[in-house]
Amino acid sequence: MFENLIEIAQNYGIFNFLLPFLLTFSIFYGILRKSKIFGSDEKAERINTIIAFVAAFYILIFTPAGTTLTSFFANFFGWSVIVLLTLFIFGTILFMMYRASGKEKVEAKIPAWILFPIGIGIVVAIFFLSMQTQYFEFLINETLIAIVVVVIIIAIIAILMYEKKPAKSA
Predict the structure, then answer these.
(1) pTM of the full predicted structure?
(2) How distant, in Å, are the alpha carbons of 78, 153, 157 from that of 90?
(3) What pLDDT is stored for residue 88 in this prediction?
């Protein structure tokens, strides 16, 4: 029964038009409303609605990187779920490896200036892998990905195992 519902929705273009339109419309409308470019009165809300409506239609007509918006969203959200689950698992492991120094204070062994660029790199990688262009096809080599993952895991283990030795007082 559920498969029939999905098939009917595909035949009527729910996934190819309606859902991408609603998503882009909501994003544009939210940005316009939050920024209050045109003010915050009722007239400004109407202007925000019209601009978001037109912008959403333009996005659906002229899709980025030559792919359909539906496949872009499917790949983007699929990769995002995979990365979020991976980060959740790594976060759980890192939390278990933090050292407690008192009842309330917890010291991290990995400084934030190392984790921040890694997070930005992951976000950029998700975006480019979602576009399905031939420009980054060389990055999707299984051997290369396996080597990078092993190197990252070894680096994380090395950082976590490294402890500063207290200075000896004379």
Answers:
(1) 0.46
(2) 19, 10, 11
(3) 82
Task: Write down the pLDDT at residue 30.
Answer: 92
Spell out the residues 6+ positions from residue 66 whose beta carbon is closer than 8 angstroms to its own: 133
Residues 74 and 53 placed together within one structural domain of the fold: no
Q: Are residues 35 and 106 in the same domain?
A: no
Domain span including residue 131 = 66-162
Write out the H or E segment, with its range, that includes residue 106: strand 106-107
State mean pLDDT over 29-43. 89
Helix H or strand E encompassing 99: strand 99-100
Q: Which residues contact 127 (CB under 8 A, 6 or more apart)?
A: 76
Contact 129, 75 (CB under 8 A): yes
For residue 112, is it within any domain?
yes
